[in-house]
Design goal:
The complex is a heterodimer of chains A (164) and B (269).
Chain A lengths: L8 H134 L4 H17 L1
Chain B lengths: L1 H19 L9 E2 L2 E2 L4 H20 L1 H5 L7 H22 L1 H24 L18 H23 L1 H6 L8 H46 L5 H39 L4
Antiparallel strand pairs in B: 1-2
Classes of the chains: A mainly alpha (164), B mainly alpha (269).
Chain lengths: 164, 269
Protein backbone atom coordinates (compact mmCIF):
# COMPACT_ATOMS: atom_id res chain seq x y z
CA UNK A 1 0.00 0.00 0.00
CA UNK A 2 2.83 2.37 0.86
CA UNK A 3 3.77 1.98 -2.80
CA UNK A 4 0.72 4.06 -3.74
CA UNK A 5 1.44 7.05 -1.53
CA UNK A 6 5.21 7.00 -1.64
CA UNK A 7 6.68 10.50 -1.40
CA UNK A 8 8.60 11.25 -4.61
CA UNK A 9 9.95 14.83 -4.49
CA UNK A 10 11.65 14.30 -7.84
CA UNK A 11 8.33 13.56 -9.50
CA UNK A 12 6.81 16.70 -7.99
CA UNK A 13 9.67 18.77 -9.35
CA UNK A 14 9.34 17.15 -12.77
CA UNK A 15 5.60 17.89 -12.66
CA UNK A 16 6.30 21.56 -12.00
CA UNK A 17 8.94 21.71 -14.72
CA UNK A 18 6.66 20.03 -17.26
CA UNK A 19 3.72 22.20 -16.24
CA UNK A 20 5.63 25.47 -16.53
CA UNK A 21 7.18 24.51 -19.85
CA UNK A 22 3.71 23.69 -21.24
CA UNK A 23 2.17 26.84 -19.80
CA UNK A 24 5.11 29.06 -20.73
CA UNK A 25 5.22 28.00 -24.35
CA UNK A 26 1.51 27.74 -24.99
CA UNK A 27 0.44 30.87 -23.09
CA UNK A 28 2.60 32.91 -25.42
CA UNK A 29 2.38 30.91 -28.64
CA UNK A 30 -1.14 29.49 -28.60
CA UNK A 31 -3.57 30.40 -25.85
CA UNK A 32 -2.81 34.10 -25.78
CA UNK A 33 -3.52 34.61 -29.49
CA UNK A 34 -6.46 32.20 -29.37
CA UNK A 35 -8.13 33.93 -26.43
CA UNK A 36 -7.46 37.26 -28.07
CA UNK A 37 -9.09 35.98 -31.26
CA UNK A 38 -12.05 34.63 -29.28
CA UNK A 39 -12.55 37.91 -27.45
CA UNK A 40 -12.16 39.82 -30.68
CA UNK A 41 -14.66 37.59 -32.44
CA UNK A 42 -17.08 38.00 -29.57
CA UNK A 43 -16.74 41.75 -29.82
CA UNK A 44 -17.04 41.58 -33.62
CA UNK A 45 -20.20 39.51 -33.44
CA UNK A 46 -21.65 41.87 -30.88
CA UNK A 47 -20.83 44.90 -33.04
CA UNK A 48 -22.17 43.19 -36.15
CA UNK A 49 -25.42 42.26 -34.42
CA UNK A 50 -25.79 45.76 -33.03
CA UNK A 51 -25.14 47.20 -36.47
CA UNK A 52 -27.66 44.84 -38.02
CA UNK A 53 -30.25 45.80 -35.40
CA UNK A 54 -29.61 49.45 -36.00
CA UNK A 55 -29.77 49.01 -39.78
CA UNK A 56 -33.05 47.13 -39.50
CA UNK A 57 -34.59 49.76 -37.24
CA UNK A 58 -33.36 52.44 -39.61
CA UNK A 59 -34.77 50.73 -42.67
CA UNK A 60 -38.08 50.16 -40.91
CA UNK A 61 -38.20 53.82 -40.02
CA UNK A 62 -37.34 54.76 -43.60
CA UNK A 63 -39.97 52.40 -44.91
CA UNK A 64 -42.70 53.95 -42.76
CA UNK A 65 -41.50 57.37 -43.77
CA UNK A 66 -41.61 56.44 -47.45
CA UNK A 67 -44.98 54.84 -46.97
CA UNK A 68 -46.27 58.03 -45.38
CA UNK A 69 -44.75 60.12 -48.11
CA UNK A 70 -46.24 57.90 -50.75
CA UNK A 71 -49.62 58.12 -49.09
CA UNK A 72 -49.32 61.88 -48.86
CA UNK A 73 -48.24 62.30 -52.47
CA UNK A 74 -50.99 60.00 -53.64
CA UNK A 75 -53.51 62.09 -51.76
CA UNK A 76 -51.92 65.24 -53.12
CA UNK A 77 -52.09 63.89 -56.66
CA UNK A 78 -55.70 62.94 -56.21
CA UNK A 79 -56.44 66.40 -54.92
CA UNK A 80 -54.63 68.05 -57.81
CA UNK A 81 -56.51 65.88 -60.26
CA UNK A 82 -59.82 66.64 -58.61
CA UNK A 83 -59.08 70.35 -58.54
CA UNK A 84 -58.07 70.31 -62.18
CA UNK A 85 -61.17 68.40 -63.09
CA UNK A 86 -63.36 70.84 -61.20
CA UNK A 87 -61.57 73.82 -62.70
CA UNK A 88 -61.91 72.38 -66.19
CA UNK A 89 -65.58 71.73 -65.64
CA UNK A 90 -66.08 75.24 -64.38
CA UNK A 91 -64.14 76.67 -67.29
CA UNK A 92 -66.14 74.60 -69.73
CA UNK A 93 -69.40 75.83 -68.29
CA UNK A 94 -68.16 79.40 -68.34
CA UNK A 95 -66.90 79.15 -71.88
CA UNK A 96 -70.10 77.54 -73.04
CA UNK A 97 -72.10 80.21 -71.34
CA UNK A 98 -69.98 82.94 -72.87
CA UNK A 99 -70.17 81.40 -76.31
CA UNK A 100 -73.89 81.02 -76.05
CA UNK A 101 -74.25 84.60 -74.95
CA UNK A 102 -71.95 85.85 -77.65
CA UNK A 103 -73.73 83.97 -80.38
CA UNK A 104 -77.07 85.21 -79.08
CA UNK A 105 -75.72 88.73 -79.10
CA UNK A 106 -74.45 88.27 -82.64
CA UNK A 107 -77.76 86.97 -83.82
CA UNK A 108 -79.59 89.81 -82.15
CA UNK A 109 -77.24 92.38 -83.57
CA UNK A 110 -77.53 90.86 -87.04
CA UNK A 111 -81.26 90.94 -86.73
CA UNK A 112 -81.17 94.63 -85.80
CA UNK A 113 -78.79 95.35 -88.66
CA UNK A 114 -81.06 93.57 -91.10
CA UNK A 115 -84.00 95.58 -89.91
CA UNK A 116 -82.06 98.82 -90.24
CA UNK A 117 -80.78 97.88 -93.67
CA UNK A 118 -84.20 96.78 -94.85
CA UNK A 119 -85.74 100.01 -93.66
CA UNK A 120 -83.07 102.00 -95.39
CA UNK A 121 -83.54 100.04 -98.63
CA UNK A 122 -87.25 100.51 -98.45
CA UNK A 123 -86.79 104.20 -97.88
CA UNK A 124 -84.47 104.45 -100.87
CA UNK A 125 -86.78 102.37 -103.08
CA UNK A 126 -89.66 104.53 -102.06
CA UNK A 127 -87.79 107.72 -102.96
CA UNK A 128 -86.64 106.33 -106.33
CA UNK A 129 -90.17 105.19 -107.18
CA UNK A 130 -91.48 108.64 -106.42
CA UNK A 131 -88.78 110.26 -108.55
CA UNK A 132 -89.40 107.87 -111.40
CA UNK A 133 -93.15 108.26 -111.25
CA UNK A 134 -92.79 112.03 -111.28
CA UNK A 135 -90.38 111.98 -114.23
CA UNK A 136 -92.60 109.54 -116.17
CA UNK A 137 -95.68 111.57 -115.43
CA UNK A 138 -93.90 114.77 -116.50
CA UNK A 139 -92.83 113.21 -119.77
CA UNK A 140 -96.33 111.90 -120.44
CA UNK A 141 -97.84 115.26 -119.81
CA UNK A 142 -95.15 117.10 -121.83
CA UNK A 143 -95.84 115.29 -125.05
CA UNK A 144 -99.50 114.71 -125.44
CA UNK A 145 -99.12 112.16 -127.99
CA UNK A 146 -100.74 109.18 -129.56
CA UNK A 147 -101.40 106.09 -127.73
CA UNK A 148 -98.65 104.55 -129.64
CA UNK A 149 -96.40 107.26 -128.66
CA UNK A 150 -97.48 106.86 -125.06
CA UNK A 151 -96.81 103.23 -125.09
CA UNK A 152 -93.45 103.77 -126.59
CA UNK A 153 -92.73 106.36 -124.04
CA UNK A 154 -93.70 104.17 -121.17
CA UNK A 155 -91.66 101.30 -122.45
CA UNK A 156 -88.69 103.59 -122.91
CA UNK A 157 -89.10 104.88 -119.39
CA UNK A 158 -89.34 101.41 -118.07
CA UNK A 159 -86.19 100.44 -119.89
CA UNK A 160 -84.52 103.42 -118.43
CA UNK A 161 -85.59 102.28 -114.98
CA UNK A 162 -84.29 98.84 -115.78
CA UNK A 163 -80.98 100.26 -116.84
CA UNK A 164 -80.85 102.42 -113.77
CA UNK B 1 -3.48 -25.86 -12.48
CA UNK B 2 -4.37 -25.60 -8.83
CA UNK B 3 -0.83 -24.71 -7.99
CA UNK B 4 -0.86 -21.82 -10.46
CA UNK B 5 -4.11 -20.49 -9.11
CA UNK B 6 -2.81 -20.51 -5.54
CA UNK B 7 0.35 -18.82 -6.63
CA UNK B 8 -1.68 -16.10 -8.34
CA UNK B 9 -4.00 -15.62 -5.43
CA UNK B 10 -1.05 -14.81 -3.23
CA UNK B 11 0.28 -12.30 -5.72
CA UNK B 12 -2.82 -10.74 -7.13
CA UNK B 13 -2.81 -7.83 -4.69
CA UNK B 14 0.84 -7.17 -5.41
CA UNK B 15 0.24 -7.42 -9.17
CA UNK B 16 -2.57 -4.90 -9.03
CA UNK B 17 -0.53 -2.54 -6.89
CA UNK B 18 2.37 -2.87 -9.25
CA UNK B 19 0.10 -1.93 -12.16
CA UNK B 20 -1.21 1.23 -10.51
CA UNK B 21 2.11 2.40 -9.05
CA UNK B 22 4.97 4.33 -10.51
CA UNK B 23 7.89 2.38 -11.91
CA UNK B 24 11.28 2.23 -10.25
CA UNK B 25 13.81 4.76 -11.52
CA UNK B 26 14.34 4.10 -15.22
CA UNK B 27 17.16 6.65 -15.43
CA UNK B 28 18.56 7.29 -11.94
CA UNK B 29 19.44 10.94 -11.48
CA UNK B 30 20.59 12.80 -8.37
CA UNK B 31 20.94 16.56 -8.49
CA UNK B 32 21.74 18.76 -5.50
CA UNK B 33 20.77 15.98 -3.18
CA UNK B 34 17.35 15.55 -4.72
CA UNK B 35 16.31 12.32 -6.40
CA UNK B 36 15.31 13.53 -9.87
CA UNK B 37 15.24 10.03 -11.37
CA UNK B 38 13.25 9.61 -14.53
CA UNK B 39 10.40 7.27 -13.69
CA UNK B 40 7.54 6.11 -15.87
CA UNK B 41 5.27 8.85 -14.56
CA UNK B 42 7.83 11.49 -15.48
CA UNK B 43 7.92 10.07 -19.00
CA UNK B 44 4.11 9.96 -19.18
CA UNK B 45 3.97 13.60 -18.10
CA UNK B 46 6.50 14.51 -20.75
CA UNK B 47 4.50 12.69 -23.38
CA UNK B 48 1.34 14.51 -22.26
CA UNK B 49 3.18 17.84 -22.33
CA UNK B 50 4.68 17.09 -25.75
CA UNK B 51 1.28 16.10 -27.16
CA UNK B 52 -0.32 19.33 -25.91
CA UNK B 53 2.51 21.57 -27.03
CA UNK B 54 2.63 19.99 -30.49
CA UNK B 55 -1.13 20.06 -30.93
CA UNK B 56 -1.55 23.66 -29.86
CA UNK B 57 1.52 24.97 -31.65
CA UNK B 58 0.21 23.48 -34.89
CA UNK B 59 -3.43 24.34 -34.23
CA UNK B 60 -2.75 27.91 -33.13
CA UNK B 61 -0.66 28.79 -36.18
CA UNK B 62 -3.51 30.70 -37.87
CA UNK B 63 -4.10 32.62 -34.63
CA UNK B 64 -0.46 33.68 -34.39
CA UNK B 65 -0.67 34.94 -37.96
CA UNK B 66 -3.99 36.58 -37.13
CA UNK B 67 -5.63 34.99 -40.17
CA UNK B 68 -8.48 33.25 -38.36
CA UNK B 69 -11.94 34.22 -39.45
CA UNK B 70 -13.84 30.97 -39.17
CA UNK B 71 -11.87 28.09 -37.62
CA UNK B 72 -12.35 24.60 -39.03
CA UNK B 73 -11.29 21.04 -38.38
CA UNK B 74 -8.57 20.51 -35.79
CA UNK B 75 -8.18 24.22 -35.15
CA UNK B 76 -11.87 24.38 -34.37
CA UNK B 77 -11.51 21.54 -31.87
CA UNK B 78 -8.64 23.29 -30.09
CA UNK B 79 -10.54 26.54 -30.13
CA UNK B 80 -13.51 24.79 -28.55
CA UNK B 81 -11.23 23.62 -25.72
CA UNK B 82 -9.79 27.09 -25.21
CA UNK B 83 -13.23 28.66 -25.49
CA UNK B 84 -14.65 26.17 -22.99
CA UNK B 85 -11.95 26.81 -20.37
CA UNK B 86 -11.85 30.55 -20.95
CA UNK B 87 -15.54 31.34 -21.29
CA UNK B 88 -17.14 28.54 -19.25
CA UNK B 89 -14.65 28.24 -16.38
CA UNK B 90 -12.36 31.24 -16.05
CA UNK B 91 -14.62 34.12 -17.03
CA UNK B 92 -17.60 33.09 -14.85
CA UNK B 93 -15.59 32.04 -11.78
CA UNK B 94 -12.47 34.22 -11.84
CA UNK B 95 -14.10 37.25 -13.42
CA UNK B 96 -13.69 38.98 -16.74
CA UNK B 97 -11.02 41.46 -15.57
CA UNK B 98 -8.60 38.77 -14.42
CA UNK B 99 -9.60 36.16 -16.99
CA UNK B 100 -6.76 36.97 -19.39
CA UNK B 101 -4.10 36.47 -16.70
CA UNK B 102 -5.56 33.24 -15.27
CA UNK B 103 -6.80 31.48 -18.41
CA UNK B 104 -3.34 30.14 -19.36
CA UNK B 105 -2.94 28.62 -15.88
CA UNK B 106 -6.35 26.94 -15.90
CA UNK B 107 -5.86 25.88 -19.52
CA UNK B 108 -2.50 24.31 -18.69
CA UNK B 109 -4.07 22.47 -15.75
CA UNK B 110 -7.01 21.25 -17.79
CA UNK B 111 -5.12 20.18 -20.90
CA UNK B 112 -2.24 18.56 -19.03
CA UNK B 113 -4.53 16.65 -16.67
CA UNK B 114 -6.96 15.54 -19.35
CA UNK B 115 -4.15 14.39 -21.64
CA UNK B 116 -2.32 12.57 -18.86
CA UNK B 117 -5.60 10.96 -17.77
CA UNK B 118 -6.41 9.74 -21.26
CA UNK B 119 -2.86 8.56 -21.95
CA UNK B 120 -3.23 6.37 -18.87
CA UNK B 121 -6.09 4.57 -20.56
CA UNK B 122 -3.97 3.51 -23.54
CA UNK B 123 -2.64 -0.03 -22.88
CA UNK B 124 0.32 0.55 -25.22
CA UNK B 125 2.20 2.33 -22.44
CA UNK B 126 2.08 -0.84 -20.33
CA UNK B 127 5.10 -1.93 -22.38
CA UNK B 128 7.09 -0.05 -19.76
CA UNK B 129 6.40 -1.63 -16.37
CA UNK B 130 4.30 0.37 -13.95
CA UNK B 131 1.21 2.54 -14.18
CA UNK B 132 0.75 4.71 -17.23
CA UNK B 133 -1.47 7.20 -15.44
CA UNK B 134 0.78 9.90 -14.05
CA UNK B 135 -2.25 11.73 -12.64
CA UNK B 136 -2.98 8.65 -10.54
CA UNK B 137 0.18 9.42 -8.58
CA UNK B 138 -0.38 11.61 -5.52
CA UNK B 139 2.97 13.32 -6.05
CA UNK B 140 1.87 14.62 -9.45
CA UNK B 141 -1.55 15.74 -8.24
CA UNK B 142 -0.02 17.21 -5.10
CA UNK B 143 2.43 19.20 -7.22
CA UNK B 144 -0.51 20.53 -9.26
CA UNK B 145 -2.54 21.27 -6.13
CA UNK B 146 0.39 23.09 -4.53
CA UNK B 147 0.44 25.36 -7.57
CA UNK B 148 -3.24 26.09 -7.15
CA UNK B 149 -2.57 26.75 -3.45
CA UNK B 150 0.08 29.30 -4.48
CA UNK B 151 -2.11 30.67 -7.24
CA UNK B 152 -4.87 31.40 -4.74
CA UNK B 153 -2.44 33.42 -2.59
CA UNK B 154 -0.95 35.18 -5.64
CA UNK B 155 -4.39 36.05 -7.01
CA UNK B 156 -5.62 37.37 -3.66
CA UNK B 157 -2.44 39.37 -3.05
CA UNK B 158 -2.47 40.87 -6.54
CA UNK B 159 -6.04 42.03 -6.09
CA UNK B 160 -6.04 43.16 -2.46
CA UNK B 161 -2.36 43.46 -1.55
CA UNK B 162 -0.53 40.92 0.59
CA UNK B 163 -2.06 42.16 3.84
CA UNK B 164 -5.46 42.66 2.26
CA UNK B 165 -5.51 39.07 1.08
CA UNK B 166 -4.87 37.68 4.55
CA UNK B 167 -7.40 40.08 6.03
CA UNK B 168 -10.00 38.47 3.78
CA UNK B 169 -9.73 35.36 5.95
CA UNK B 170 -12.00 37.25 8.31
CA UNK B 171 -14.99 38.63 6.45
CA UNK B 172 -15.97 42.13 7.54
CA UNK B 173 -19.05 42.54 9.69
CA UNK B 174 -18.53 39.33 11.63
CA UNK B 175 -18.73 39.73 15.43
CA UNK B 176 -15.26 39.31 16.92
CA UNK B 177 -15.95 36.22 19.08
CA UNK B 178 -16.91 34.36 15.92
CA UNK B 179 -13.48 35.08 14.49
CA UNK B 180 -11.95 32.70 17.04
CA UNK B 181 -13.77 29.90 15.30
CA UNK B 182 -13.82 31.32 11.81
CA UNK B 183 -10.12 32.06 11.32
CA UNK B 184 -8.94 28.56 12.26
CA UNK B 185 -11.61 27.13 9.98
CA UNK B 186 -10.54 29.37 7.12
CA UNK B 187 -6.86 28.51 7.69
CA UNK B 188 -7.74 24.84 7.74
CA UNK B 189 -9.77 25.31 4.57
CA UNK B 190 -6.75 26.82 2.83
CA UNK B 191 -4.95 23.50 3.19
CA UNK B 192 -7.94 21.20 2.91
CA UNK B 193 -8.87 22.47 -0.54
CA UNK B 194 -5.59 21.59 -2.28
CA UNK B 195 -5.44 18.35 -0.29
CA UNK B 196 -8.90 17.46 -1.58
CA UNK B 197 -7.81 18.33 -5.12
CA UNK B 198 -4.79 16.06 -4.74
CA UNK B 199 -6.70 13.10 -3.38
CA UNK B 200 -9.74 13.42 -5.63
CA UNK B 201 -7.77 13.29 -8.85
CA UNK B 202 -5.24 10.64 -7.79
CA UNK B 203 -7.87 8.41 -6.22
CA UNK B 204 -10.23 8.64 -9.17
CA UNK B 205 -7.49 7.82 -11.64
CA UNK B 206 -6.17 4.91 -9.59
CA UNK B 207 -9.55 3.51 -8.57
CA UNK B 208 -10.64 2.83 -12.13
CA UNK B 209 -7.49 0.89 -12.86
CA UNK B 210 -7.75 -1.10 -9.66
CA UNK B 211 -11.36 -1.95 -10.50
CA UNK B 212 -10.44 -3.10 -13.99
CA UNK B 213 -7.57 -5.22 -12.73
CA UNK B 214 -9.71 -6.68 -9.98
CA UNK B 215 -12.33 -7.66 -12.53
CA UNK B 216 -9.67 -9.38 -14.61
CA UNK B 217 -8.18 -11.14 -11.56
CA UNK B 218 -10.78 -13.97 -11.25
CA UNK B 219 -9.62 -15.31 -14.62
CA UNK B 220 -6.26 -16.11 -13.03
CA UNK B 221 -7.52 -16.79 -9.51
CA UNK B 222 -9.98 -19.41 -10.70
CA UNK B 223 -7.79 -20.35 -13.65
CA UNK B 224 -10.87 -20.42 -15.84
CA UNK B 225 -10.58 -18.71 -19.24
CA UNK B 226 -14.39 -18.58 -19.62
CA UNK B 227 -14.59 -15.96 -16.91
CA UNK B 228 -12.65 -13.80 -19.32
CA UNK B 229 -15.76 -13.29 -21.44
CA UNK B 230 -17.57 -11.64 -18.56
CA UNK B 231 -14.50 -9.81 -17.29
CA UNK B 232 -13.59 -8.36 -20.65
CA UNK B 233 -17.16 -7.31 -21.40
CA UNK B 234 -17.39 -5.58 -18.04
CA UNK B 235 -14.02 -3.91 -18.53
CA UNK B 236 -15.07 -2.56 -21.92
CA UNK B 237 -17.93 -0.83 -20.13
CA UNK B 238 -15.64 0.42 -17.41
CA UNK B 239 -13.24 1.74 -20.05
CA UNK B 240 -15.98 4.00 -21.37
CA UNK B 241 -16.70 5.08 -17.83
CA UNK B 242 -12.97 5.76 -17.39
CA UNK B 243 -12.98 8.07 -20.41
CA UNK B 244 -15.79 10.05 -18.83
CA UNK B 245 -14.02 10.07 -15.46
CA UNK B 246 -10.80 11.23 -17.14
CA UNK B 247 -12.61 14.20 -18.67
CA UNK B 248 -14.73 14.99 -15.63
CA UNK B 249 -11.84 14.87 -13.15
CA UNK B 250 -9.73 17.19 -15.31
CA UNK B 251 -12.73 19.51 -15.53
CA UNK B 252 -13.29 19.35 -11.77
CA UNK B 253 -9.64 20.08 -10.98
CA UNK B 254 -9.59 23.04 -13.38
CA UNK B 255 -13.00 24.29 -12.29
CA UNK B 256 -12.23 24.13 -8.56
CA UNK B 257 -8.88 25.84 -9.10
CA UNK B 258 -10.71 28.62 -10.94
CA UNK B 259 -13.36 28.82 -8.23
CA UNK B 260 -10.74 29.09 -5.48
CA UNK B 261 -8.76 31.71 -7.38
CA UNK B 262 -11.98 33.61 -8.06
CA UNK B 263 -12.91 33.41 -4.39
CA UNK B 264 -9.57 34.95 -3.45
CA UNK B 265 -10.15 37.80 -5.93
CA UNK B 266 -13.79 38.35 -4.95
CA UNK B 267 -13.93 37.37 -1.26
CA UNK B 268 -17.35 38.96 -0.83
CA UNK B 269 -19.03 36.07 -2.60
Amino acid sequence: MEQLVRFEPGLMIWTWITFFIVMGILARKAWGPMIEALDKRQADIRTALDAADRARAESEQLETKYQEQLQASRKEGQKVLNDARAAAEKLRIELEEAARKKSADLVAKARDQIVVERDQALREIRATVVDLSLSIAGKVVERNLTTQDNRKLVEESLRQIGEA
Amino acid sequence: MKMAAEEHSENVGAVILHHVSNSEALVPLQLWGVDLSITKHVIMLWIAGAVIITAFLIGARPYRRGTVRVPSGFTNFLEAVVDFVHNQIVVPYVGRQSARSWSPYILALFTLIVTANLLGLIPFFDLIPGSGTSTGNVNVTAALAVMTFMAIIVAGSREHGVIGHWKNLAPPGVPWPVLFILIPIELLGMFVRPFALTMRLAANMTAGHIAMLAILAPIFLLANPWIGIGSVALNVGISFLEIIVALVQAYVFALLSAVFIGAAIHPEH
